[in-house]
């Protein structure tokens, strides 16, 4: 999944819950959440200290800049939480799942 190309989505609507659940099967550590009626994909990553969490946050930021698709990242001592969704679509699209898989790769 991480090797899929990301591109501006042609779909006018976000993915359905059913479609999201199918995509999420490939990302077992990620959760689909609903915040104010908007589906989002989130995962908590743990680290041994703040410096490692911060370095991971930078790697995710670099990934986001390259894709021109930006998550919410919350960083604190020993952890970072990454949440992907397509702001312009008001929910999840295929790119969110691709970038979640890439996030897993930069966490290694």
From TrEMBL:
Keyword tags: Lyase
Annotated catalysed reactions: (4aS,6R)-4a-hydroxy-L-erythro-5,6,7,8-tetrahydrobiopterin = (6R)-L-erythro-6,7-dihydrobiopterin + H2O
One record GO biological process: tetrahydrobiopterin biosynthetic process
Entry annotated with the keyword Lyase: yes
Family under the similarity heading: Belongs to the pterin-4-alpha-carbinolamine dehydratase family.
UniProt-listed HAMAP family: Pterin_4_alpha (MF_00434)
The name this protein goes by in its record: Putative pterin-4-alpha-carbinolamine dehydratase
Organism: Vreelandella azerica
């Amino acid at each position: 999944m991480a090797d899929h190309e990301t591109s501006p989505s042609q779909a006018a609507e976000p993915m359905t819950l059913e479609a999201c659940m199918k995509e999420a099967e490939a990302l077992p550590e990620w959760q689909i959440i609903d915040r104010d009626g908007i589906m989002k994909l989130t995962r908590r990553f743990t680290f041994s200290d703040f410096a490692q969490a911060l370095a991971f946050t930078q790697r995710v930021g670099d990934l986001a800049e390259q894709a021109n698709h930006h998550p919410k990242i919350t960083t604190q001592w020993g952890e970072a939480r990454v949440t992907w969704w397509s702001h312009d679509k008001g929910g999840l699209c295929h790119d969110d799942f691709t970038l979640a898989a890439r996030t897993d790769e930069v966490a290694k």
